[in-house]
Amino acid sequence: MDSDLPDLSIRQFEYLVAVADSDTFALAAERVGVSPSALSQGLAELERRVGVALFDREGRRRVLRPDTRPVLDHARQVLALTADLTNWARRTRSGDHGRLRLGMIDASAVQHHGEVLRRFRAEHPELRVHLRVGPSGDLLRELTGGSLDLAVCVEPAEPPRGVSTQELLTEDLAIYAPDGRRRAGPSAAWGPWVLFPGNAHTRSGIEAALRRQGAPVEVVAESHQPEVLCEMVRLGLGWSVLPVVQAEWGRQPLVRCEILARRRLVVARRSGAAPHPASLLFENALRIGRLAA
Fold it and tell me: What distance in Å separates the CA atoms of residue 144 and residue 167, rounded to the nearest whole number?
């Protein structure tokens, strides 16, 4: 398809603005980093492409014609918009602009990394951070589906295809009894249990640890929400195994019987995906924050 639009370049607009803002051709050439002859050739090409005479000759000098104002104004606008685009691209490449879609389990988002997240958002005000808090399995599915850029979750027994993980921290899982006792007593007497759902990554580890101890695993209630499980323990509905950082957090901490097992939290990302600059920045913030803690 034919077009009447001239094929103009950013460089030619730079030449035109430099001449308009400089006292001499030599100063204009120095300003854009070319020789006076290269500047002259570039401006001649601009005139040719626009199809309108932009300069008058006064002896050996070339002077902008008064009626070139529309071209000059356009050149200034294009250069300003191009500078804006360049700055935006630089900020996006550096992770300071654009969007970051994070997935975090509740223990990470609140207890372990809440302050890291708050500080990260404050340090990158132009970055739009969208946070999704949910169970590990849901977060991994959303990560593989492309709706998350990064997830902090419980380490899966086997990472889903297309996902790589890296350990972030290890935390204790403890037994909590409904009567507030500080010792669990004989394992055969433990339970019944209020636990995470059967499809939760943490649940399989808890059940395996209980069986190693010889404890019966009778589950009478389930919830993905640790605060709900804590309340069930307080109400006397059953025993539970919970992350210490959650069960003993807040105004009504549960009383720990003993440590049963440990779980690992990992940073999960899509394998082979182009590096997301903001994701890399946030990963680094997570590790620095953990070291500081």
Answer: 18
Strand 61-64 and strand 55-58: pairing?
antiparallel
Spatial contact of 261 and 205, defined as CB atoms under 8 Å apart: yes
Determine the structural domain holding residue 112 and report its residue range.
101-152+271-292
Q: Do both 111 and 83 map to the same domain? A: no
Q: How many domains does the chain have?
A: 3
pTM, rounded to two decimals = 0.71
User: Closest by alpha carbon to 88, among 96, 78, 77, 80?
Assistant: 96
Q: Which helix (H) or strand (E) holds 193?
A: strand 193-195
The last residue of one of the domains, among 93, 116, 132, is 93
Q: State the pLDDT confidence band at 285, using cuts at 50, 70 and 90.
A: very high
Q: Do the Cβ atoms of 15 and 49 come closer than 8 Å?
A: no
Could you check whether the bond before residue 178 is cis, i.e. omega within 30 degrees of 0?
A: no
Bridge partners of 27?
A: none
Domain-located, residue 24:
yes
